[in-house]
From TrEMBL:
<dbReference type="Pfam" id="PF02770">
    <property type="entry name" value="Acyl-CoA_dh_M"/>
</dbReference>
<feature type="domain" description="Acyl-CoA dehydrogenase/oxidase N-terminal">
    <location>
        <begin position="20"/>
        <end position="94"/>
    </location>
</feature>
<dbReference type="InterPro" id="IPR006091">
    <property type="entry name" value="Acyl-CoA_Oxase/DH_mid-dom"/>
</dbReference>
<dbReference type="InterPro" id="IPR046373">
    <property type="entry name" value="Acyl-CoA_Oxase/DH_mid-dom_sf"/>
</dbReference>
<dbReference type="InterPro" id="IPR013786">
    <property type="entry name" value="AcylCoA_DH/ox_N"/>
</dbReference>
<comment type="similarity">
    <text>Belongs to the DszC flavin monooxygenase family.</text>
</comment>
<keyword id="KW-0547">Nucleotide-binding</keyword>
<dbReference type="InterPro" id="IPR036250">
    <property type="entry name" value="AcylCo_DH-like_C"/>
</dbReference>
<dbReference type="GO" id="GO:0004497">
    <property type="term" value="F:monooxygenase activity"/>
</dbReference>
<feature type="domain" description="Acyl-CoA oxidase/dehydrogenase middle">
    <location>
        <begin position="131"/>
        <end position="222"/>
    </location>
</feature>
<keyword id="KW-0503">Monooxygenase</keyword>
<dbReference type="GO" id="GO:0008470">
    <property type="term" value="F:3-methylbutanoyl-CoA dehydrogenase activity"/>
</dbReference>
<keyword id="KW-0560">Oxidoreductase</keyword>
<dbReference type="GO" id="GO:0050660">
    <property type="term" value="F:flavin adenine dinucleotide binding"/>
</dbReference>
<dbReference type="Pfam" id="PF02771">
    <property type="entry name" value="Acyl-CoA_dh_N"/>
</dbReference>
<dbReference type="InterPro" id="IPR009100">
    <property type="entry name" value="AcylCoA_DH/oxidase_NM_dom_sf"/>
</dbReference>
<dbReference type="Pfam" id="PF08028">
    <property type="entry name" value="Acyl-CoA_dh_2"/>
</dbReference>
Length: 396
């Protein structure tokens, strides 16, 4: 799909760059307490950025994927956790706004879906925050392992199950939940938008190595929802969309982790200058290698994003999507690790920006698709196979 013509993506990027230094000032406190960054989200809402992906006709910025990627990287340069929660929200609103209408209609979506979609997008432009509840303990983010179930109830659905690692949980207005149909022979997995409140319980379990302020707790669902909660208006779309247009599942994190990697270069330069280490050639060489690696990863993400906007769902586009996730995830932790060594033990103290960035950067390769899964997918493609099918276990 071509980039929306009414986009105010440039304005959004300027706002993100303005907010990022304030996020950076608060990041250490949020990280230490493992708390949701409320002040950051108050500012994102005030700037209207929860409406980044919402079309202009519904009150948003109407950003393209490339504009999202630039905003996410700018926010992550300030605070990785804030940018990661924002990424989950952008994935929900971006997929809703950018999945082509003709495709959804061809799949059988009823007219009522479009009204429900616009209502959810309008709410986002007004400040509503959405989280993604896909992963489960034991099965990770693999759709084929989904145990959270749904069944028809009245004219809607009842959703029952437990999700894990839900960034922004307890602070989101609604959750995108993946759930499996218990009444069908087929392993149908569908997306639902489940409002916070009755039938949704957060269990505070998140106390992890990195991205601590994402508050990615377990969430338990036993919720009744109306028919409009079924995203796309059709059951069983989750796998189809994951394979056909993987950008919001695979590549949206990439921008966040290039931002974290760029922040590590910034922090290393500050530290090295402050300690008078900038005359040491081995230290400078590590900074030089890191800077070049981050610039290369930024270019890979930008190329993937450009193709997502120009030719979404094309084979060549999807190959860049997987390259972007692999390159950004691996670059972030390699760069942060090398820079910590260049900066020395003082930078490994709790509360030093490089110490936090080292931990945050380690998470990129773990998020789906993991770096190992991306590399296997790309290897299968390079060998001339079908990377979605040539696999011992399902990709999703
Ligand atoms: C900071 C952070 C925030 C997160 N936020 C969210 C969120 O908001 N919402 C959400 O739903 N999830 C979220 N997650 C969860 C995350 O995105 C993954 O789904 C989860 O980490 C996967 O679970 P796992 O690592 O336990 O297991 P797995 O993904 O099962 O990985 C375990 C091992 O199996 C390998 N593996 C996995 N799949 C395959 C495959 N198909 N083929 C071969 N090997 C495979 C992996 O490479 C890895 O080595 C978050 C994770 C992190 C780190």
């Amino acid at each position: 799909m071509p980039a929306p013509t009414e986009s105010r993506g440039g304005e959004a990027l300027a706002l993100a760059r303005e907010l990022a230094p304030r996020f950076a000032e608060r990041a250490a406190a949020h990280d230490e307490r493992g708390r949701f960054p409320e002040a950051d989200f108050a500012e994102l809402r005030a700037a209207g950025l929860t409406g980044l992906m919402v079309p202009a006709r519904l009150g948003g910025f109407g950003a393209s994927f490339a504009e999202y990627a630039a905003v996410a990287a700018a926010l992550a340069r300030g605070a990785g956790s804030t940018a990661l929660i924002f990424n989950m929200h952008a994935s929900v609103t971006g997929a809703l706004a950018q999945t082509p209408e003709h495709l959804v209609r061809a799949l059988g979506a009823p007219e009522s879906f479009f009204a429900a979609r616009d209502k959810a997008l309008e709410a986002a432009a007004g400040g509503a925050l959405y989280a993604v509840a896909m992963s489960e303990r034991g099965g990770g983010s693999r759709l084929s392992k989904t145990t959270t179930a749904y069944r028809r109830s009245g004219d809607g659905f009842r959703i029952t199950g437990a999700k894990a690692f839900v960034s922004g949980s307890g602070h989101a207005d609604a959750y995108l939940v993946t759930a499996r149909d218990t009444e069908s022979e087929e392993p149908l997995v569908s997306h639902f938008l489940v409002p916070a409140g009755a039938g949704v319980r957060v269990e505070e379990t998140w106390d992890s190595l990195g991205m601590r302020a994402t508050g990615s707790h377990d969430v338990h669902f036993d919720a009744e929802v109306g028919p409009d909660a079924l995203l796309g208006g059709v059951e069983g779309l989750a796998l189809l969309l994951a394979e056909a247009m993987p950008q919001w599942l695979v590549a949206s994190y990439a921008a966040v982790y290039t931002g974290v990697a760029r922040a590590a270069v910034d922090a290393a330069c500050d530290h090295v200058r402050g300690r008078g280490l900038d005359g040491l050639a081995p230290v400078r060489a590590r900074i030089g290698r890191a800077e070049a690696a981050v610039a290369a990863a930024e270019l890979v993400v930008a190329e993937a994003a450009r193709r997502i906007d120009a030719d979404p769902g094309e084979d060549a586009t999807n190959r860049w999507v997987w390259r972007a996730k692999l390159t950004a995830g691996d670059t972030a932790f390699q760069v942060a690790s090398s820079l910590l060594e260049a900066a020395g033990t003082g930078a490994s103290r709790r509360g030093h920006p490089l110490e936090r960035l080292y931990r945050d950067a380690r998470c990129g390769a773990l998020q789906p698709a993991t770096s190992d899964v991306c590399a296997d997918w790309l290897g299968a493609a390079a060998l001339g196979g079908d990377p979605d099918r040539d696999t011992a276990v399902p990709r999703w």
